[in-house]
Amino acid sequence: MMDKRHSPLGITKAVVPAAGLGTRFLPATKATPKEMLPIVDKPAIQYVVEEAVGAGLGDVLMITGRNKRSIEDHFDRAYELEEALRVKGDTERLRGVRAPSELAQVHYVRQGEPRGLGHAVLCAAAHVGDEPFAVLLGDDLIGEREALLKRMIEVQAERGGSVVALMEVEPEQVSLYGCAAIEPTGDGDVVRVTDLVEKPAAEAAPSRWAVIGRYVCAPEVFGVLRQTPPGRGGEIQLTDALRELARRKPDEGGPVHGVLFRGQRYDTGNKADYLRTVVEFACARPDLADDFVPWLRDFARELPGG
């Protein structure tokens, strides 16, 4: 029998951490989860779930916290609203309202206290069990034409262990990410990760290849996370656990590979990038672009220095 960790069919589950407080977007996120902030007319977290489903992962576990009930409501049926739209004959909006509940099997577990991404992933252990799984962070949206997650799943099936997504960043940005020390493999877009450093100073970074918010993890990561002490900010870092796995042999949960991603990524974790994302998505919408793009050009010309 083929080892499940090396089977293309072995990965069926996605974990989406969504327990953060969203302090960068206060006061908007005082009562509304940051994951529910809209990108035009669809919450950011729906794009993430759609990406997981598009990669063949139909079982999605949300790691939530207090005041995140609206996420559960969004992926549930809304019978009264659906009936009101049906009576009006508004089939387009009815399809839009039903779509989130029909995407995947969505499950929820609460992270009792915000103790870092590593702890959030550890909360998924009982649901995931002894099989590899994907982790998708809601702050990073990947262009819908990209096949990053599918490629990561392919690499994990071929090589085992864990896989991270790596994107080259400017030197002044490396301190915002976990950065990887890498060595080449036989594939041009795949590297072997030999070390990971969480948010290094620019002069101490092992490379400019930063870990972005997509991971495919071997189940051995849970055992490592249980033994990982809190790091920067008193949080348990997933990067620290992956660093340990990068040193291990295949029968111990290693190695760790990276997929070099050069496609379109949208960072919605801060206000400026969030606004740029909304504008880009609006400009790409056929139902909005004809009106919005000419207005945007005129508006930009009228700005000081435009």
UniProtKB/TrEMBL annotation:
Signal peptide segment: none
The keyword Nucleotidyltransferase belongs to this UniProt entry's keyword annotation: yes
Pfam name, any one: NTP_transferase
EC number of the protein: 2.7.7.9
Reaction it catalyzes: alpha-D-glucose 1-phosphate + UTP + H(+) = UDP-alpha-D-glucose + diphosphate
Family: Belongs to the UDPGP type 2 family.
Name by which UniProt lists this protein: UTP--glucose-1-phosphate uridylyltransferase
